[in-house]
From TrEMBL:
NDH-1 shuttles electrons from NADH, via FMN and iron-sulfur (Fe-S) centers, to quinones in the respiratory chain. The immediate electron acceptor for the enzyme in this species is believed to be a menaquinone. Couples the redox reaction to proton translocation (for every two electrons transferred, four hydrogen ions are translocated across the cytoplasmic membrane), and thus conserves the redox energy in a proton gradient. Belongs to the complex I subunit 4L family. It is a multi-pass membrane protein. The lineage of its organism: Bacteria, Pseudomonadati, Bacteroidota, Sphingobacteriia, Sphingobacteriales. Coiled coil: none annotated. This is NADH-quinone oxidoreductase subunit K. It is found in: Cell membrane; Membrane. Gene3D superfamilies: 1.10.287.3510.
Length: 109
């Protein structure tokens, strides 16, 4: 564990903030622009992973393990989101034969 802390502290914190901001912005762009549900789910995962990396970096710089504990909770949330999201995508595809967001309007009453 000590080796990890010395490695992560060798890189300036600003680099982690800039890198995670870029990854998060790519994820937000994917959610806002794309129409495919699978790509939207991947973009949400990208945003969650950028937050995880930033929490781990802040946790290492502060020397506190609470940020790393939050990472595990976010990973559990992401796994649940993927399971529920994929189940919804499969059901939508069975009914509409498409995974396009616009095809969800066909499911209205």
């Amino acid at each position: 564990m000590e080796n990890f802390l010395t490695q992560i502290q060798g890189v300036p914190l600003n680099h982690y903030i800039i890198f995670c901001s870029i990854i998060f912005a790519i994820g937000v762009t994917g959610v806002l622009i794309r129409r495919n549900v699978i790509i939207i789910m991947m973009s949400i995962e990208l945003m969650l992973n950028s937050v995880n990396l930033l929490l781990a970096a802040f946790s290492a710089y502060r020397g506190d393990a609470s940020g790393q504990v939050f990472v595990f909770f976010i990973m559990a949330l992401a796994a649940a989101e993927v399971a529920v999201g994929l189940a919804i995508i499969v059901m939508v595809y069975r009914h509409t034969k498409s995974v396009d967001i616009e095809s969800l309007s066909k499911l209205r009453w």
